[in-house]
Amino acid sequence: MSMVAAFYSNKSILITGATGFLGKVLMEKLFRTSPQLKVIYILIRPKAGQTLQERVFQILNSKLFEKVKEICPNVHEKIRPISADLNQSDLAISKEDMQELLSGTNIVFHCAATVRFDAHLREAVQLNVIATQKLLLMASQMSKLEAFIHISTAFSNCNLKRIDEVIYPCPVEPRKIIDSMEWLDDAIIDEITPKLIGDRPNTYTYTKALGEMVIHQESGNLNVAIIRPSIVGASWQEPFPGWIDNINGPSGLIIASGKGFLRSLRATPMAIADVIPVDTVVNLTIAVGWYTAVHRPKSTLIYHSTSGNLNPCLWHDMGLKVLAAFEKIPFERAFRRPYVDFTTNNFTTQYWNAVSHWAPAIIYDFYLRLTGRKPRMLKLMNRLLRTISMLEYFINHSWEWSTNNTEMLLSELSPEDQRVILLPLCRPSHANHWLEYIENYVLGIKKYLLKEDLAGIPKAKEHLRRLRNIHYLFNTALFLIVWRLLIARSQTARNVWFLIMSFCYKFLSYFRASSALKV
Ligand SMILES: CCCCCCCCCCCCCCCCCC(=O)SCCNC(=O)CCNC(=O)[C@H](O)C(C)(C)COP(=O)(O)OP(=O)(O)OC[C@H]1O[C@@H](n2cnc3c(N)ncnc32)[C@H](O)[C@@H]1OP(=O)(O)O
Ligand SMILES: NC(=O)C1=CN([C@@H]2O[C@H](COP(=O)(O)OP(=O)(O)OC[C@H]3O[C@@H](n4cnc5c(N)ncnc54)[C@H](OP(=O)(O)O)[C@@H]3O)[C@@H](O)[C@H]2O)C=CC1
């Protein structure tokens, strides 16, 4: 067994956000590589009419946990769901549960957050700042605690171009923001939000930066580390390639382009697409847990989990790779053939939105109305464009993240751990792995998100061929109509038309004469 995996044997681990994308993969990997661990406490709230047990049952019965159930058949006995709501000021944990957590926990992984870019500042502060503060307080009372690992984001300081593994001060102290949320009403908060977030694009990145500051100021003697992943994508290899279960980040846009809704996107083609596979982030997180507990660094270390500095892939190349993957793995019932143009200024963006997004949506809604159905495409298109407007910032900027602490940690690992942790995608020598990764990503989206059967691929390809023919037919018809109208109204257009016709006629006559001579 590897050194890191052995460390987690007999440990009691507390994970927040274990029902989320990253949390689930973290829990899976811990059980798979350290089946001897004692217990994983998960802070979880009842949701969508499901009890805690039903939520845990659903996770354990998902495809993600198939391997774990083979390796650790009693995994269900090792998960201890604790009812909690991080939106509540006391986290809504019962006294008995709190007692158990305080006396038993060895390692805390704090993953829970609101990752919505449009979250109201009050909600984002509650989850990303106050809940972090409360958890720190709780952690400080844990008698056996060895490490507290906080998941932040590489974009918490996205207002800077070069970002080091340090905590940057915020203009307004987190404590002042927390206090003000108690007495300011929503209208005033709405008014001051743009001033507070300053040159950050949303409340998410702002409150994640405040969360880091809280860790820095209030962790006291705790052994704390912060991990900053960039754009977390589908898994690279573990537990199997392409696992993904939410539409955040690139996944939603990959679906929208594969289904033919998204046809143009305002993006900087030469900006770096800093996507990092979820298993790469989780492996680093587990290694950081071990290092922080065993080596007890004197100060809080920050680890960047990014790909751009070691193995950069540009948005332009990523777009081409995604489109190439659709050729092999098309999605079913596409609205139009997948094709995405990158636009670079306001005018072309608005133009292509009108031509490629709104016009087809209006035509399709008209067709739905004619056939007695409810129009829906324009609404869907407007939602997609709203989503894109929120993601645009991240596809139009490049950042440089230093990774000294991450590199230092990797060099501290045993050869066995390095084999497991140093996933190839973020190493410089494996640039060509991006194509393989993107193909698996698209396949994963098709299988696990869209729940489409792979047996339907030939039919999906046939559907795309039909769409291509309709596209050619439509363009030819449109050209002829426009041209007919033009030559009916303009003498110049008529002259050009006759010139082209006579040139074609001469060319054909010459061609026929020269073929006759050869015979
Ligand atoms: C060939 C070219 C291909 C190129 C690929 C290019 C990819 C570029 C990707 C750039 C990603 C940049 C991400 C940056 C991540 C920063 C990292 C982090 O720390 S942050 C961690 C990451 N955090 C995030 O990524 C959070 C981003 N997301 C949000 O903040 C919110 O979803 C929202 C505000 C955008 C929409 O809110 P709201 O409308 O109130 O409500 P809902 O949320 O309930 O969804 C409603 C509808 O929107 C739909 N939909 C949702 N997401 C996407 C999507 N990504 N996309 C498309 N569609 C999306 C959804 O399907 C639904 O449709 P329907 O069922 O109604 O038909
Ligand atoms: N995904 C990404 O691209 C990136 C993510 N990160 C960071 O990684 C971490 C995990 O993100 P990710 O897994 O993608 O996010 P998800 O949205 O998938 O998961 C969020 C988790 O937080 C939990 N949570 C939210 N609100 C509450 C609450 N009030 N009480 C209890 N639990 C709550 C959710 O529980 P529930 O299921 O009940 O809603 C869920 O388990 C976050 O800290 C995020 O900032 C950083 C960089 C990029």
Could you please describe the fold and organization of this structure?
This protein has helices at residues 3-7, 21-33, 52-60, 66-71, 75-78, 95-104, 121-140, 174-183, 186-197, 203-218, 250-258, 278-295, 315-328, 346-370, 377-395, 404-412, 415-421, 433-449, 457-489, 491-518; strands at residues 12-16, 39-44, 79-83, 107-110, 147-151, 162-163, 224-229, 231-233, 264-266, 275-277, 301-305, 341-343, 400-401. With 519 residues, the protein is of the alpha/beta class. Helix 2 (21-33) links the parallel strand 1 (12-16) and strand 2 (39-44). Helix 14 (346-370) packs antiparallel against helix 15. The longest helix has 33 residues, at 457-489. It is elongated, with a radius of gyration of 27 Å. The mean pLDDT is 93. The structure holds stearoyl-coenzyme A and NADPH dihydro-nicotinamide-adenine-dinucleotide phosphate. Residues 115-118, 153, 155, 231, 247-250, 252-254, 256-257, 319, 322-323, 340, 380, 383-384, 387, 390-391, 394-395 line the site of stearoyl-coenzyme A.
Strand order of the largest sheet: 3-2-1-4-5-7-11
Percent of residues in helices: 40-55%
Number of helices: 20
Structural class: alpha/beta
Give the overall shape, derived from the CA principal axes. elongated
Q: How many strands in all? A: 13
Query: Nearest-angstrom radius of gyration?
Result: 27 Å
Main location: membrane
Protein name: Fatty acyl-CoA reductase
EC number: 1.2.1.84
Domain Thioester reductase (TE): 15-284
